[in-house]
Amino acid sequence: MPKPQVPGLVKGLGVTLSTLAQTIKPKKLGGGANTVQYPHEKEAPPIRARGVIALREDNCTACMLCARSCPDWCIYIEGHKELAPPRRAGGAPRKVNKLDRFDIDYALCMYCGICVEVCPFDALFWSPEYEYSEPRIADLLHDKTKLGEWMETVPEAPELEAGAEKKGKK
Amino acid sequence: MLAVDLPYWAQSLLRVLGGTVAVLLPAGTIVYLFLFKMMSFMQSRLGPMEAGPYGSMQLFAEVGKWLQKEDIYPERADKRIFKMAPLVVLVSTFLLVAVVPFGPEAWFTNFEAGIFYALAVGSVSVLGILMAGWSSANKYSLLGGLRAAGQLIAYELPMVLAVVGVVIQAGTMNMQGIVFQQNAGEIFGWDGLGNPFVLTQFVGFLIFMIAVQAELTQAPFDMPIAESELVSGYMTEYSGFRFLIFFIAEFATAGVFALIASVLFLGGWGIPFSWFGWDTLDDVDGWMNVVGPVIMITKMIALTFIMMWVRFSYPRFREDQLQKFAWKVLIPVALINIMFTAILKVVF
Question: What is the spatial distance between Cα B268 and Cα B178, in angstroms, rounded to a whole number?
Answer without folding.
Answer: 9
